[in-house]
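quick one
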Amino acid sequence: MKTIKDAIIETSKLKVQGNNITHKANIQELLKEAMAIGQDLTTSISKLGSSQGTQNNTTPEATQPTVNTMAAQIVQLSKDMKEMKTLVSNTLESNTKTWAQVVGNENTTGNEGPPNQHRKLRAKRSEQIKEEAAKYSIKLLATNAPNEVKKRLAEMTHKDLIGQLQNAINKQYANNPPKLLPGMTKNDKDTYYRLQCKSPEEVQRLKSMNWGAAYEGLTEHKRKHGFVVHGVLKADLDPSTDNPDKAIEELEVENSSRNLHIVKLSTIKKKNPENPGIITRHHSVIIFTYSATEANECMERGVIIKGRFYSNIEKYAPQLNITQCYNCWGFGHVGAKCRKKQRCNNCGETEHTANECTNTTQCLGCGEGHPAWHRECKKWNEESTRLEQLRTTTLPHFIE
Ligand SMILES: [Zn+2]
Ligand SMILES: [Zn+2]
Ligand SMILES: [Zn+2]
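structure w/ zinc ion:
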């Protein structure tokens, strides 16, 4: 026990950067888990001891499950130790994993029904894997391309498109041009194309590629990293009324020690249907940057707005907030992006809207006698419980 405690302290002292931030977090998580299991074991053992002391007060059947539980805990503990060993060696090894190896890791974590906390940990790791896999890919958008270009892209096979893009890359990079892997995602409807490279370094080198030279209007989609600053005085910063360029410039100057480059400012829209008239003096501001490092830096160190220091900051993760579609009344997407049939929120039918509805009220989510948007709906509760759990498995920082 004491050794694990020491290990936790030692690990927390480690100074790490880049990928190793995640490895360190994982190791800490595992150590804490090992600690909890160890404590459980100690309790079980002492219980076992006392029940033996009182002899025949406890039947053998009563102690049996405890022994089984302990055995299971020991198995889990040794599994955790193994995982920890792998993590430690990952941390030490140079960062030359291929994309396939990163994705392949997903299947190597245990798979037989572990307790809930282990499942959570695994979910957290698969989020990490997803983020890490993203470093091996590059997303291109043709949203602003002329229709004629969009049409040509749509008609092209995956293989031909990769070939054409590789040709354009070869023309722009005289020295050792980055290589695209033979496999891509092609979404002609939303005109996005996701390409894969062998290493994050190649992806990084492609950041300077002029994709417009290959196809007019083709651009790289840069991922925005947002963080939410809570309790900001509206008088000091209000992205809905301030001049955006001026506000961004001022913030960048004030936070130049965090090397902050802002792409966009926004606010969290608070829904308070009971009190729509109440105007608050404070609000939550979302700051977006292209750089994970800059976002992490601000989340860790806080930000300065009009001389005031703010440290109540969290990662902007809209997927963790409940959204209900006003078109189909399903969850997890907004009406503007819905591709399903419009439904009546009073009865669930597709042929009319609620205004025209003459049917009895029946929720299309749960079948009970309330409209589909009702907050006391079983579906709404299920969705918020799901998000609650997702929240506990989401990484608090961005992966660079
Ligand atoms: Zn919908
Ligand atoms: Zn209806
Ligand atoms: Zn319902």
